[in-house]
Write a structure and sequence with these properties.
With 79 residues, the protein is α+β, with helices and mostly antiparallel strands. The protein is 27% helix and 33% strand. Mean pLDDT is 85; it is low at 1-11.
């Protein structure tokens, strides 16, 4: 493995994600969704916004969305 590959594989890359779900979530869900900021949109959706350490964390968060039965609208990396 090259030095560049080693440094890239061991350095954490935090990305900011925006996840939209149908329905309005209360602030009580913020701790359940790993501290993501919850914003309520006028169109009846909720926007979960915040940084996650990696793809594993993203998939874990999406699993929680699925587990509580929230209809997923979109997932976007914004950084």
């Amino acid at each position: 493995m090259s030095e560049q590959s080693k440094s890239h594989s061991t350095s954490p890359e935090t990305l900011v994600y925006e996840i939209r779900v149908r329905g309005h979530l209360s602030d009580q869900w913020q701790s359940w969704f790993e501290g993501m900021i919850i914003e309520l949109e006028a169109d009846g959706t909720s926007r979960l916004y915040g940084s996650l350490a990696d793809q594993v964390a993203l998939h874990g968060l999406l699993r929680k969305v699925r587990d509580v039965g929230l209809p997923l609208i979109s997932v976007n990396a914004v950084q």
